[in-house]
Write a structure and sequence with these properties.
By secondary structure, the chain is an alpha+beta fold. Strand 6 and strand 7 form a beta hairpin. The chain is elongated, with a radius of gyration of 46 Å.
Length: 646
């Protein structure tokens, strides 16, 4: 070797070899004085370092790295191991180039270090490539990460540190877990174990905490395995993309769809508004309030908050400090102007507070971002809807404002429709009640019981009717039916058909002509409508019953022994055919029989007609029906529980 005492020929050969190696070669004594340096040193630095002391050579090293290089040589000065170090050295044009240097000790026969043999290769191109890669990774808008085979992080680009506020030392290994939403950590662990076991790509959606405001943002991460020459996974490389805005848009669209469906339903408006407010939280807001104007007072009809305790606090706030309906508030509502505060400064709370207690309650509600949109129809304002973000830290933007205004318009239309519906329902109910018989005939040996209950919640007023009247001293006429459609039109049509049956019966027509007359009146005045009806004439002395059923649900007869059977003769409904050819059914009752006529609302409450019919027959067969003074009400309460849907 160069440090031994070879012969002259051997030394020359070694030097020739050192000059041909594409690296910087040097030899120093134990104290670091250069004994030899090949020409590549001079070509690179422009300095012949032969004979220079270690301190002089260090002047060629970049100032920021001299101390680190000196420490590396100092640690191995006893020759206990080789030296490996990267540093920059000044080239002949004054620029610095990166070298990777390696030095090994040479010993004498006694094992003492007498010389150091060093070699360094120029790694500037690799450093340039690494720096270029680093710049690319820093420019990528996603989080880029590299982990070892077990998932311990080896590298994050700067996006991770900007988002989470962590340092490289904190995030390394598994130090990234504190930045993940607690609800997502276990899911990530399960997905990671599955990916590792199957050597398949890791794909997951999870939330990362943003250091700037403490909020969590949704990200989608994909990570792919990298295998070594032996096929084993050595690393995973992945990318995490911020999808929080997309998630919020999807959430808002779901909320809009749900709100639209809810607003189209027909139960009472305040209940609907509360459900809409509940759906808005947390899909669109941390706090949602809907207020309606009554006289000069703004009353809260729906309040929802992501924290149930805060709902109580919100109600307390509104009780103690009702919304002040000033002229400015009315003017803003009438003008249809929304109030939009992306960030609510504390000064705004101070300005709105009526006293210190008011301010403190508002602070506890953590109002950070707000949208307030008026509710109005045809320029007539009647309230507003208020969306507030607080604990989540989300900040509303102009896209959110437009969403809030869409929701407000749909709420406004729904409220207006509900008011129109209520007016029509009251009119139709009044009309329908007026069209039904006020009293039932009182007959010897025959007891009549009738019960009518209009729909209460889901359906509008319908066209069901019943009627009972005497044709003469011996004959009782009965009719019952159901008109297609709902609302005032159905109530008017019901009255027309019922009255046609009554008039034709009182004119002395037989059963088939009575039904035909009603059908003719229906098709002449209300073509396209369908009506089911059952018309019956009862001889109260013989209890012989003759009937025509025009598509109506079959009447039931309960016999003395409790057996129940249907009156089975049926014909097509009214309004279906041009010429009728009806079959007449007959039934003879005894003094202990019970005849039950009803409409389909009694058996369709659970959307299962077969089960409803079975339940009806069961109640009719029960002993209670034989002893109750009001069997019609008993049927209603037993089958519908006191609430009618139709």
């Amino acid at each position: 070797m160069l440090g031994s005492q070879p012969g002259a020929a051997d030394g020359l050969e070694y030097r020739r070899l050192a000059e041909t190696i594409p690296a910087l070669i040097w030899l120093t004594n134990a104290q670091g004085r250069t004994l030899y340096a090949n020409r590549r040193w001079f070509d690179l630095t422009g300095v012949d370092i032969t004979g220079l002391e270690a301190g002089k050579i260090n002047e060629l090293i970049h100032p920021s790295e001299r101390e680190r290089v000196a420490e590396a040589f100092e640690r191995s000065s006893d020759g206990s191991g080789a030296i490996e170090v990267e540093y920059r050295i000044r080239s002949r044009d004054g620029s610095y180039r990166w070298l990777f240097a390696n030095a090994v000790p040479l010993r004498d026969d006694d094992g003492n270090v007498v010389q150091w043999l060093g070699a360094a290769i120029d790694i500037q191109e690799q450093k340039n490539a690494a720096e270029f890669t680093q710049r690319i990774m820093s420019a990528v808008p996603q989080i880029v990460f590299v982990s070892d085979a077990d998932g311990a992080i080896e590298y994050y680009n700067r996006r991770w540190y900007e988002l989470t506020g962590q340092t490289p030392d904190e995030a390394g290994g598994f130090g990234w877990t504190p930045a993940i939403h607690p609800d997502d950590v276990d899911l990530l662990g399960d997905l990671w174990q599955r990916a590792k076991a199957t050597a398949s790509p890791f794909i997951a959606e999870y939330r990362i905490r943003r250091a700037s405001d403490g909020t969590y943002r949704w990200h989608m991460a994909t990570s792919h395995p990298i295998s070594g020459d032996d096929g084993r996974i050595v690393r995973w490389i992945g990318v995490a993309t911020d999808i929080d805005d997309q998630k919020r848009r999807e959430s808002v669209l779901r909320f809009l769809a749900d709100a639209s469906e809810l607003m189209a339903e027909s139960f009472d408006v305040e209940r609907r508004l509360q459900i809409v407010a509940d759906r808005a939280v947390p899909e669109f807001a941390d706090w949602c309030g809907i207020y309606l104007l009554k006289k000069r007072e703004m009353l809260p009809v729906a309040i929802a908050h992501r924290d149930p305790e805060q709902v109580r606090l919100a109600h307390q706030l509104l009780r103690e400090y009702p919304v002040d309906v000033t002229d400015a508030v009315i003017e803003q509502m009438l003008a249809g102007r929304s109030s939009f505060m992306p960030v609510i400064p504390e000064s705004a709370l101070h300005k709105a507070a009526r006293d210190e207690r008011h301010f403190e309650i508002m602070r506890k509600l953590e109002m950070r971002s707000s949208i307030q949109v008026p509710l109005s129809i045809n320029g007539q304002a009647f309230g507003f809807v208020h969306f507030v973000n607080g604990p989540s830290g989300r900040i509303y933007d102009h896209a959110d404002l437009k969403t809030g205004e869409i929701i407000a318009r749909r709420i406004s239309v729904a409220i207006d429709n509900a008011r129109i519906y209520e007016r029509e329902r009251r009119v139709a109910n009044t009309f329908q009640q007026a069209a039904l018989p006020r009293t039932l005939p009182e007959l010897p040996g025959v007891s009549l019981s009738a019960f009518y209950q209009p729909a209460e919640t889901e359906a509008e007023i319908g066209g069901d009717w019943y009627d009972a009247f005497m044709l003469d001293q011996r004959r009782l006429a009965l009719s019952i039916g159901d008109v297609s459609g709902k609302g005032l039109d159905a109530a008017v049509l019901m009255s027309t058909v019922r009255q046609s049956i009554r008039v034709a019966a009182l004119e002395g027509f037989d059963l088939t002509r009575i039904v035909a007359a009603a059908d003719h009146a229906l098709q002449m005045e209300y073509a396209g409508h369908v009506v089911s009806a059952l018309v019956m004439i009862v001889d109260i002395e013989s209890l012989r019953c003759a009937y025509v059923s025009a598509g109506h649900v079959p009447a039931l007869v309960r016999l003395r022994d409790g057996d129940v059977r249907e009156l089975g003769v049926r014909n097509v409904p009214l309004g279906v055919v041009a010429e009728r050819d009806d079959l007449v059914g007959e039934e003879v009752l005894d003094r202990h029989s019970l005849l039950v006529l009803y409409t389909d609302g009694l058996i369709e409450a659970n959307r299962d007609v077969i089960e409803g019919t079975r339940a009806l027959a069961g109640v009719v067969a029960s002993d209670a029906m034989a002893h109750t003074p009001n069997p019609s009400r008993l049927l209603f309460e037993a089958l519908l529980g006191g609430s009618a849907r139709d």
